[in-house]
Amino acid sequence: MELPVYTRSQLALRNGQDKPEIWVAYLGKIYDVTRSRLWRNGKHYEHWAGQDLSEELAAAPHNQNVFDKFEVVGILAIP
In sequence order, what are the beta bridge partners of 56? Predict the structure, then answer.
């Protein structure tokens, strides 16, 4: 199954405020973190949903494996 491609603007709407979905992008993949209690209201510590977190993960206390438990719902369009 081919995943849909979303623009940064479309991703930004999935911030837990504008639409009910809470999505984040990492290394070109978009993950649905809606069901995570750590992403309630679209915020996780100093991170906001609806954004590409690829550069921010380097400063996080965990590695990219944290995304393994979330469903990939799309691909982030390259501008």
Answer: none
